[in-house]
Amino acid sequence: MDAERPVLVLEGIHAGYHDLLVLRGVDLTLAPRSMTAVIGANGAGKSTLLKTVFGMIRPSRGRIMLRGMDITRMSTVDRLRRGLVFVPQGRSNFPELTVRENLEMGAFIRRDKNVARDIQAVYERFPILGTRRSTMAGNLSGGEQQILELAMALMIDPQVALVDEPSLGLDPGMQEIVFAAIGRLRDLGAAVLMVEQNAVQALQIADRGVVLELGKVSATGDRAGNAR
Questions:
Q1: Nearest to 62 by CA among 6, 24, 32, 8
Q2: Apex 97 CA angle, 92 and 99, nearest 5
Q3: Residue 4: exposed, middle, or buried by beta-carbon count in 10 A (0-12, 13-18, 19+)?
């Protein structure tokens, strides 16, 4: 397949909650091995956008394409099987399971025999998890839990990773570590769509920025300074 072909395409997405329309015709394209930061005010529709892409909210209009396949009506589990993962805002691990057990849960849709090998690779990429492998996830710091959740996403070799407010509640030092972990997702092959309130830091590591305003894309720009 052509490496330049978009991995994810949103066409005219309208979505919301019951009678409340939040997204109003969103068009968005993600290139392979790229990071796009979505910024905007509270209520702009940023988290709704990620939930719609993952299938938690069904759009009333528009189409979502993943590597050329229409996934607009596909279930979240089927999207996972096709390499679309979601790391939501707040803690989304299993607090009473160990780090290793959480990584095993991250691979729950897999049927191959390489899970143990890939867990070891996670320990090598994120040594902080290797040293805490037997620790209950609920006993990790907020930043360590965020890194664990990103590592859980890695366990299915994602094509697209949706990440919602990863720096929320973290001190500046841990924010840097978490953003570096998100960069690793991109470096390992995923296209990352990240919602982040810390616009300055998000845009420093992203290849592209998208401004969402009242449910519409109001501006985009890339690292080279091209904007529209």
A1: 24
A2: 80
A3: exposed
Q: Which of 74, 61, 51 is closest to 26 using CA atoms?
A: 61
Q: What is the pTM of this model?
A: 0.91
Q: What is the mean pLDDT of the chain?
A: 93
Around Cβ 126, how many Cβ atoms within 10 Å? 22
Residue (of 101, 111, 181, 113) closest to 138 by Cα position = 101
What are the Cα distances from residue 101, in Å, to 43, 107, 116, 137? Answer: 36, 10, 11, 9
Nearest CA to 194 out of 159, 163, 156, 217 is that of 163
Q: Are strands 61-66 and 69-70 parallel, antiparallel or unpaired?
A: antiparallel
Are 137 and 94 within 8 A, CB to CB?
yes
Fold of 8-220: Rossmann fold (3.40.50)
| Contact status, residue 153 vs residue 122, Cβ threshold 8 Å | no
CA-to-CA dists, residue 145 to 60, 64, 114, 132, 194, angstroms: 34, 30, 24, 11, 17
CA distance 82 to 99: 25
What pLDDT is attached to residue 144?
94
Is residue 3 pLDDT above 60, yes or no? no
Give the Cα-Cα-Cα angle 215, 71, 35 (nearest 5 degrees): 60
Here the tokens at position 146 are 């965020």
Distance CA 109, CA 10 (A): 25
**Which residues, 6+ apart, have CB-to-CB distance to 58 below 8 Å?**
15, 52, 72, 73
